[in-house]
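Weekly structure sync, notes
Attendees: PL (lead), two postdocs, one rotation student
Agenda item 3: pending single-chain targets
PL asked that the sequence for the first pending target be pasted directly into the notes so everyone works from the same version. It is reproduced below exactly as submitted, 127 residues in total.
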Amino acid sequence: MIGLAHGIRIHLCTSPTDMRRGFDGLSGMVTALLEQDPLSGHLFVFRNRNRDKLKILYWDTDGLAIWYKRLEQGTFQFPTDGRTGEESQTGVQITHSQLSLLLGGIDLTSARKRKRYSKEKTENAVK
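Predicted structure, written out during the meeting:
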């Protein structure tokens, strides 16, 4: 798995992507669909229509890099955006642990997260 520094966000493009797209095509999708900067250092995850291929685009200090995975059996299960049962055209932000679960074949909708302390939630409650 890719070593991730603290503060790196992970964005899933929930609409199917043509896996023939390379650096420029995926960068364009990051800008147009996800409304993010592909050079930000964050991870941008794309999947194909059959859900058996996945690409991760990220800025690696001096250039863009693509991590590509093809499943021999089974599919990746991407979460929906919560507004409808359909997947959104934009994307969803997930955590590092959720990405690991997704890559490991775990359906994020059926996984339950136990209650944990979050500094962000505490700061927002005080304001």
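Discussion points:
- The chain has one domain: 10-126.
- The first strand starts at residue 10 and ends at 12.
Action: rotation student to compare against the earlier draft before next sync.
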